[in-house]
Amino acid sequence: xxxxxxxxxxxxxxxxxxxxxxxxxxxxxxxxxxxxxxxxxxxxxxxxxxxxxxxxxxxxxxxxxxxxxxxxxxxxxxxxxxxxxxxxxxxxxxxxxxxxxxxxxxxxxxxxxxxxxxxxxxxxxxxxxxxxxxxxxxxxxxx
Length: 143
Hints:
Helices cover 45% and strands 14% of the residues. The protein has helices spanning 12-34, 67-72, 74-84, 115-139, and strands spanning 40-41, 45-46, 61-65, 86-90, 102-107.
């Protein structure tokens, strides 16, 4: 089961609030129909079929243009994202590859953090990348 909340613009809180309402609605419906709830472990969070999504299983992401990092090279962007605990993907999804200057930047971790911590990590990482990208654009004469 994958529940997605997305919209154009930068209202991350609005997207998160809508996601939380959707998750609660699905959980309430499952419990009403079956009398059962999603498996939740106090230490590991929600139990999923995919072990990479243990914990909240939440991936928060933003599409952002990073022409400076694109000019520097994907290796530089990946290394910086690693330091910021975020991960870059192409806008075509996990295995769709990268085209152009637009990247999907998301929280790297899923286990051991709350949903709020994961969203904040993504926000902080994206803000840092955008600020650093502006400097890289100046360096490469594309600002």
